[in-house]
Design brief:
Blueprint: E1 10-13, E2 19-23, E3 29-33, E4 36-47, E5 56-63, E6 71-77, E7 86-92, E8 101-103, E9 114-120, E10 124-129, E11 132-138, E12 154-161, E13 181-195, H1 200-205, H2 223-236, E14 237-240
Parallel strand pairs: 1-3
Antiparallel strand pairs: 2-13, 3-12, 4-9, 4-13, 5-6, 5-12, 6-7, 7-8, 8-14, 9-10, 10-11
The protein binds 2-acetamido-2-deoxy-beta-D-glucopyranose.
Residues 77, 79, 83-84, 86, 166-168 line the site of 2-acetamido-2-deoxy-beta-D-glucopyranose (NAG).
Protein name: Xyloglucan endotransglucosylase/hydrolase
Family: Belongs to the glycosyl hydrolase 16 family. XTH group 1 subfamily.
Glycosylation sites: 79
Length: 261
């Protein structure tokens, strides 16, 4: 992504870890899981940069390695004091992204820790904020719509300078007099299928009791969850690529014409 993993402030993450991300004029910072996973539930408690966070982006995401990568993102776009953050979500399959959906949070995400969870299984990807599903990307591979289910991913979190685009489209720059900027991570929790090589592919994809995150009850949202998602989307969704016909010259991506819950 945008953070340079060779830089000095990067380190590794194990389940159960807490961490602090720091951005100053010399560097951003990032942390990534030691293990790769193929499907699972990935929870993180995050307290975002307080005060004037304009131009900063804190990211929490899964990504595969190498070319034509898959990626599932939460990104938090900072703002001036008192102005709302944006929760930016995206999903890449085989190197192709452009599937952004953005939300305003219904709370101040810099005041306290909130739970951001990515639940990824062979049927669907769900983005949760404090247990409320805000977005679903379902597997419609049988209809030629790409779905990330072949490549193992690591978990990443980073804080970096994105003031060329993040806040009001790049109008508000980072105020370096406020540096260092700090975001805090707590209790990273991965309940997921660890992937050590191609022989794990079948096992990680199998609907066994160990792979509970892929079980029937996690292959669709239930009625309550659909109601909650409907609430979040009707009140807080501010951008949806599926509504941005211009971006696609009139031809929306296939998944936009499908039910996504
Ligand atoms: C920042 O605040 C402005 C003004 O309220 C708002 O238009 C914008 O969506 C907010 N968020 C970002 C990341 O620009």
């Amino acid at each position: 992504m945008y953070f340079n993993w060779g830089s000095q402030h990067s380190s590794f993450l194990d389940s159960g870890d807490d961490a602090t991300l720091v951005l100053d004029q010399t560097s951003g910072s990032g942390i990534k899981s030691k293990t790769s996973f193929l499907f699972g539930s990935f929870e993180m408690l995050i307290k975002l940069v307080p005060g004037n966070s304009a131009g900063t982006v804190t990211a929490y995401y899964l990504s595969s390695n190498g070319e034509k990568h898959d990626e599932i993102d939460f990104e938090f776009l900072g703002n001036k004091s008192g102005q709302p953050y944006i929760i930016h979500t995206n999903i890449y399959t085989d190197g192709g992204g452009g599937r952004e959906q953005q939300f305003y949070p219904w709370f101040d995400p810099s005041e306290d820790y909130h739970n951001y969870t990515i639940h990824w299984n062979p049927s669907q990807v769900v983005w949760y904020v404090d247990s409320i599903p805000i977005r679903v990307y379902r597997n419609y591979q049988g209809e030629g719509i790409p779905y990330p289910n072949q490549k193992p991913m690591r978990v990443y979190s980073s804080l970096w300078n994105a003031d060329s685009w993040a806040t009001r489209g790049g109008l508000d720059k980072i105020d370096w007099t406020q540096s260092p900027f700090v975001a805090k991570l707590r209790r990273f929790r991965s309940r997921a299928c660890a992937y050590t090589g191609p022989t794990d592919t079948a096992q990680c994809g199998a609907p066994t009791p160990e792979n509970w995150w892929s079980s029937a009850m996690y292959s669709y949202l239930n009625v309550d969850q659909r109601r909650q998602m409907n609430w979040a989307r009707s009140n807080y969704l501010i951008y949806d690529y599926c509504k941005n016909i211009k971006q696609f010259n009139g031809f929306l991506p296939g998944e936009c014409l499908k039910v996504q819950y």
